[in-house]
Amino acid sequence: MNDEPQTPPSRSADRVYDQVKAMAVTYRLRPGERVNEVELARSLGVSRTPLREALNRLAAEGFLIATVNRGYSVRPLDPKRVLTLYEYRAMLEVGALRLACERASDEALDALAAFAARSRDEPDDDEHALELLTLDEQFHESLARLSDNEEMVRSLRSLNERVRFIRWIDMRKGRRSSTQDEHLMILRHLRARDADAAAALMQTHIARRLDQITDMIRAGFAEIYTGNALAAKAMGEVA
Amino acid sequence: MNDEPQTPPSRSADRVYDQVKAMAVTYRLRPGERVNEVELARSLGVSRTPLREALNRLAAEGFLIATVNRGYSVRPLDPKRVLTLYEYRAMLEVGALRLACERASDEALDALAAFAARSRDEPDDDEHALELLTLDEQFHESLARLSDNEEMVRSLRSLNERVRFIRWIDMRKGRRSSTQDEHLMILRHLRARDADAAAALMQTHIARRLDQITDMIRAGFAEIYTGNALAAKAMGEVA
DNA sequence: GGACGCAGATGTGAATACACTTCTAGCAAG
DNA sequence: CTTGCTAGAAGTGTATTCACATCTGCGTCC
């Protein structure tokens, strides 16, 4: 189970990258907060050099902001930006979907449908929001992979990570019931090679909660400054 | 004019980032070639530390590939990937365009049209391919900005940089005549708030040369290994 | 004669050391 | 009491040094 003995992953920078990303994504590092390099490095058990490499990559990917002579800070939780990311994600997924509709084999679509059907059996309570979110991301990412466009998949993965916290907040409100059914419906349209129908459904599937983003962010702030169960869980996984 | 005295841009890492990116984009560093850090650092007049930060960012953005214990190498010039990037770019621009159609003011569209009309006066010979390409990128980026979605603009910029070399090759074949007219036509559709027409035109505008990518890459290799005027020009700008 | 193996060289990954900028606290002048 | 100035502290940016992995070439063993 533990693969550490055979994989001493030569680069501590990569490990640190994952760890810090998890911290930023779950807002264990608080939005707007400035990162103290020596302190964080010490707490992660490495020197500043690999930490700075990780911070650099995270800044390049939009998780952090770099300011000259003032180091790095976590990107503030800004409604406008979250909206922007949601919008981008919707467009990207619809675009990938249209490509997938032309390119995906019937077998691949069936396999994904099987996965989606299996996901339906997961419990739907507040406790399992993270697992549900993970399943949802996996579904969407697998679907995007059927577009056979690696760069789109890459972008989608990055986008998903950046809005994960907000989506987790959203998931906990038990909105999921309809989600899984829509997944299956999208696949049915794809199977029928009806790109327009699939695209339209995907668009509403993603954009549905756009107008509630401000509320979700409000709830997000509450979570961040009063507990943050997501950060706790993520830490358990990574560290 | 020269702002160097008042702006000694505290971070040599940023300068190095721009320089190395220019090298990678123009394939002054050859595709597949492994980057020797000490050598490159010396030739840029800095130590390995800021250079490595630059390389990190470039790898995160997809310009370079990082391999464990073997450092960085320039991403090879792969037809499949270029096609992927073109495809992504087409989708992204069409998506941004649809948003712009809803959101852009008449004034903004007119201003952009004026810019496009002005660009028409540029000479069209082989020598000015780089300027033409720059103007084209500016047009498309300005258009994307009208979507009011910062993340899309960011992605588009990155995509443009990654395919710049190939597009430059393409530009030198004097394909431009129709380009400018199509730009104006797209704007006219937007002005009439006809998103579908604009989107369709944009799609063909970008995807037109997709089937010729293999040829362009062949020409690209020839350029890289026999002269590479683009690298020479870019060096003049940056260094 | 070929394959394996073993230094030495080369080059990357990480840690430490140093320089310089920004922030802070305290004092002095108005 | 407020404002401005000035060391000192704190923290980032860069250089240097050390550690370790990979590559190369030559010699030896089979």
From TrEMBL, chains A, B:
UniProt keyword annotation of Signal present: no
Keyword Transcription: yes
CDD domains found in the cross-reference section: WHTH_GntR
Pfam families, A to Z: FCD, GntR
InterPro entries the UniProt entry points to: AsnC-type_HTH_dom, GntR_C, TF_FadR/GntR_C, Tscrpt_reg_HTH_GntR, WH-like_DNA-bd_sf, WH_DNA-bd_sf
Top-level lineage group: Bacteria
Keywords: DNA-binding, Transcription, Transcription regulation
PROSITE patterns: HTH_GNTR
Domain HTH gntR-type, first and last residues per copy: 10-77
PANTHER family given in the database record: GNTR FAMILY REGULATORY PROTEIN, TRANSCRIPTIONAL REGULATOR, GNTR FAMILY
Record-given protein name: GntR family transcriptional regulator
